[in-house]
Design brief:
The chain has two domains: 75 residues, Arc Repressor Mutant, subunit A (Orthogonal Bundle); 108 residues, Winged helix-like DNA-binding domain superfamily/Winged helix DNA-binding domain (Arc Repressor Mutant, subunit A), CATH 1.10.10.10. It is mostly helical.
């Protein structure tokens, strides 16, 4: 019995420390960093975070713990999004434009990709939109393709995961089979539709996660 009490106290201590760090940070904190500072394994950090996440959800608390593959963050409960918006007089961020969603879908489902690959599918120059998505923190450079010209490779970020309310890329909606595996246009249209549905489902959370404006300017450049 005494051993069980000691274990519970240790768990509560880890949870309290994680909660305090995430609250003070106000942004994602790497699990590896938490593990280092708490002097415990990453597995213990993840287990404590999951207990906190379940506690917030099951008790219908006003905050939620968002977990991605390698980081943790506290955010407001989505059911209180409208109340928080009105209280803080925050403007609801606009949704992604079709152009931005097209590019983001290509990167999300076929990453890592080059800008040339994106443009080969879309059929138009996409440098502006790629730049916008980089500025918004939804995609980032992940390396160099070892071919003449050494073009940059792009992939999605942790902010992309949080924005769409998922913990890993494996949780992205699956793409339906299309006739002819070489039909890239059909595949990417399916990707756009899937990501659009995901964006609509996570729209109520977008303010609370502080993702910022996720669309191009009013000029509607590609």
């Amino acid at each position: 019995m005494d051993w069980q009490i000691e274990v519970n106290l240790d768990n509560n201590d880890i949870e309290a420390k994680i909660e305090g760090i995430l609250f003070a940070a106000g942004e994602p904190v790497q699990i590896s960093r938490l593990s280092e500072m708490l002097e415990t394994g990453q597995g213990a950090v993840k287990e404590a975070a999951l207990r906190l996440k379940n506690y917030y959800s099951f008790d219908r608390r006003g905050i939620r713990l968002v977990m991605t593959e390698n980081s943790l963050q506290l955010c407001s409960s989505p059911e209180h999004a409208e109340l928080i918006r009105r209280t803080l007089e925050k403007r609801k961020p606009p949704q992604l434009t079709q152009t931005a969603l097209e590019v983001l879908s290509i990167v999300a489902y076929f990453q890592p990709v080059t800008r040339a690959y994106i443009e080969s599918i879309r059929g138009v120059d996409s440098s502006y939109t790629v730049g916008v998505l980089q500025e918004r923190g939804l995609i980032e450079k992940s390396g160099i393709l070892q071919v003449p010209g050494r073009p940059s490779l792009f992939c999605t970020t942790n902010l992309f995961l949080r924005t769409f309310g998922i913990q890993s890329l494996e949780e992205l909606p699956g793409l339906p089979e299309v006739a002819g595996d070489s039909d890239s246009r059909s595949k990417i249209q399916s990707a756009i539709e899937a990501l659009s549905r995901e964006e609509e489902q996570s729209d109520d959370n977008s303010d609370i996660r502080e993702q910022g404006d996720l669309i191009e300017d009013d000029n509607g450049q590609a």
